[in-house]
Amino acid sequence: MDPSQRRAGVAALFDQLAPGYDQGPVPWFGPIGRRLVELTAPRPGDRVLDVGAGRGAASFPLADAVGRAGHGTAVDLSPAMALHLRDEAARRGTPVEVVVGEASPRTLPAGSFDVVTASLVLFFDPQPAETLAGWMALLRPGGRIGLSTFGPNDPAWTAAEAVLLAHAPAQLLDARTSGRAGPFATTGSLTTLLESVGATDVDSHDEPLVVTLPDADAWHAWTMTLGLRQLWAAVPDTEIPRALADIAAALEPDRRDDDQLHLTQHVRYTTATRP
């Protein structure tokens, strides 16, 4: 697939997801975005950029960290996501400049940001090394970049996703097929990717995030608000009841004494410096 077509596909997917994206009762993008900002360590007065901002899981913690003396910019390919982000920034009274499009030296001033974050974004890009090099060029010397991607999840969660992946077409634009291979496979491969574009002081490590849900139906409803919605769309309507039954069986080992499913996803946080 041509890179421009793939990026257009990403934008279309997130336009579709935007109304309900990160709006449910399951803490997911918010904790990941806040932790990424904490590890990237912006300071009051910094100029900061959040790439693939979505509905602001990292954008708002960044803006809070730099305060009124700083400046926050949020960029997203999806016009619908950008619209919701602008509305939320206005509701909160948080000054965030929202831009629709790509983040690169072609669209933003090079060497002008103290911090760049990209939470659960880079694995969607068809040219991750080239794109990452562009993000590094947006940093001033000594500036910091922070990425979050996916590490492994627990065996029950993996088995549940395997039910959906059995129906997945080739080239699916989802982190489950693109975000756990190649440069995203391990902390070591991500370190190598960052170092290949000139980054120094690279740290890449995994941290667990637990999602608590009552049953497979709740998992279905929640994943329909994520990129996993594409996997559900690939399941024929006649096979959805069987898929749900198989997923329920797969998730059952994660049920605990409180009668809730406790699903563990490891999130990979990678931070580095532009020399």
TrEMBL record:
UniProt superkingdom: Bacteria
MF (Gene Ontology): methyltransferase activity
Methyltransferase domain mapped to chain residues: 48-143
CDD domains cross-referenced by the UniProt entry: AdoMet_MTases (cd02440)
SUPFAM superfamilies reported in the protein's UniProt record: S-adenosyl-L-methionine-dependent methyltransferases
Matching Pfam families: Methyltransf_25 (PF13649)
GO BP annotations, alphabetical order: methylation
Keyword tags: Methyltransferase, Transferase
Entries under Gene3D superfamilies matching the protein: Vaccinia Virus protein VP39
Protein name: Methyltransferase
